[in-house]
Amino acid sequence: MLMLNDVERGLIQDNWRIVRHAALMETATGLFYKELFDQHPEYRDQFPADMAGQIKKLAVTLDFAVAAMNWKRSEWRDGDVDLQQDLFAVLMAMGRRHALEYGVQADQYGPVGAALLHALDLGLGAEFTPAHRAAWTKLYGLIAQTMQLGAVSAPGTEPLASASREEVQG
Amino acid sequence: MTALITQPPMFTARGEDMDTLTLVQLMSSLSRNRYLIRLIDEVGSGPVVLGAVEIKGGMVLRAYVDTITGREAVYALLSLRPTRLEAFHLPDAAAGEPLGTVEALLLEGAVVQDELASIREAAPATGAAAPALAVTPDVPAGQCPFGFGETQMVVVDPARQGAPAVMAKSAAGRAYVVAAPEPEPEVRSGWAAAWQALRAWWARVWRP
Predict the structure, then answer these.
(1) Superfamily of domain A6-70+80-161
(2) Least CB–CB distance from B95: residue in A4, A77, A91
(3) If we measure between CA atoms, which residue out of A47, A18, A23, A22 comes closest to residue A34?
(4) Which of A31, A146, B138, B181 is least crowded, fewest Cβ atoms below 10 Å from its Cβ?
(5) pLDDT value for B168
(6) What would you report as the CA-atom Rg of chain A, rounded to the nearest whole angstrom?
(7) In this model, does residue B31 exceed pLDDT 90?
């Protein structure tokens, strides 16, 4: 089962709360890119020379993703949002853009996920338990699959194509 | 459900790129918005809507496959292999009682699939009671949404049939009869009803 349950959502929220309160968001995303380029130097050319802006954008995007997941199953009746604020729709648009504009391939999602988990492990230390790792792994799997779907699907209505959220590469 | 669709799809995915089970889980995990997924097959002269499922916030609100609705339709949807999926973002509306959580229905659906698979595997043995059963490897494989393979596609002469069977035609228009055993008594009644309805639906869909 791919789906995140309430417990797993809670574990992700707990971790991210620590990252936010300790002002670690950009540190964590910096660690992410360091790990990614250490393991896959061939990806470096797909990113700008100055990574500062990139690191900040990834932090903002992760913050948005985690915040968008902050709901419990019992709240299913609420929460209808504009597609430009809907995590599923935003990820679809990001996946399409990453494929079309940055040439991201499906086989790059695995190394990116591994680098993300590594960065969280380094940044959170003992707070990143096996249960937290499992929840983040599941979340990243959902994100990667949705982005890959966005890359291969045919867009329909405009909100997806014109999603104005600040999107990032990586 | 179809009356609600007055807009172009939010996106379309090819069946080879995405399956219904995965798409339902992605949407349900990442969004609380109300989505409708429509399963489309290219049959004969044009596209055919096989069915649809409406979800919101991890709940299945409604589903249908042909004339089947409710939970059985969700189980049936998991059997289908559409050539494409169309997704629609629907405006939120006061939702009635959902059919159930996505997780529960998908798990139940998996059990139903296992039941159907065991029934299919038992088909030759059950059909042996009928006269002149013959396996015809020339029946197009992969055409049946219930996953009949070549060696499991049991065909009898309609004039001599003696077992429960469904008349149908292959995509090439060749008539055949699929021997389909009655479900075992211990099979839950809802599943049995779904199976019967699915057999009838399958026969109708593939009749030119």
Answers:
(1) Globins (1.10.490.10)
(2) A77
(3) A47
(4) B138
(5) 37
(6) 16
(7) yes
User: How far apart are the C-alpha atoms of A157 and A61, rounded to whole Å?
Assistant: 23
Question: What is the tens place of the pLDDT at every residue in A79-110?
Answer: 788 888 899 999 999 999 999 988 888 999 99
This model of the complex carries an ipTM of 0.85
B85-113 in b/e burial notation, b at 16+ Cβ within 10 A?
A: bbbbbbeeeeeeebbbbbbebbebbeebe
DSSP letters along A17-56, please? HHHHHTT-HHHHHHHHHHHHHHH-GGGGGGS-S--HHHHH
| 8 A C-beta contact, residue A25 and residue A62 | yes
Q: Which residue of B has its CA nearest to A67?
A: B30
Q: In the predicted model, what is the mean pLDDT of residues A160-170? A: 33
Is residue A95 within 8 A of residue A149, CB to CB? The reply is: yes
Number of neighbours of residue A74 by Cβ within 10 angstroms: 10
B121 vs A: CB within 8 A: no
Domain ranges of chain B: 2-107, 117-205
Mean pLDDT of chain B: 68
Cβ–Cβ under 8 Å, residues B50 and B59: no
The angle subtended at Cα B89 by Cα B49 and Cα B23, nearest 5°, is 65
B195: its two tokens: 């199976």
Question: Does residue B160 sit in helix, strand or coil?
Answer: helix
- CB–CB contact A146 B30 (8 Å): yes
pLDDT of residue B195: 61
Query: CA–CA separation, B85 vs B52, rounded Å?
Result: 9
What DSSP character marks residue A126? G
Measured between beta carbons, the chain A residues lying within 8 angstroms of B26 are 2, 88, 142, 145-146, 149
Distance, C-alpha B204 to centroid of its chain: 13
Q: Are A71 and B57 a contacting pair at CB < 8 A?
A: yes
